[in-house]
Amino acid sequence: MVRSYQRKTDRSNLSEDIIEKAVKDVILNNKSIREAAKHYNLTKSMLHKRVNIAKSQCKELNSECNAEEIDVKTTKVKRLMLKRRK
To answer: In which broad location class does this protein mainly occur, judging by the first location in its UniProt entry (predicted)?
Structure first.
């Protein structure tokens, strides 16, 4: 008999808006990754990866990070990860 699959975790139910706020809080307001992760209820490792990606975007643009330039949406993250692998 076939059973229906049930996820054990809800880790993929994160809102991209919350992640974006947390990344901007770390980069623009100099908040620590640990504090921001605790405040927004995110994991430190995931937030650390997203912050590093956002900082590398700023370096590619050869400018300091502004609120408008920081883009942490999932599609942008995937494209950057694919570029790094090549």
So the answer is: nucleus
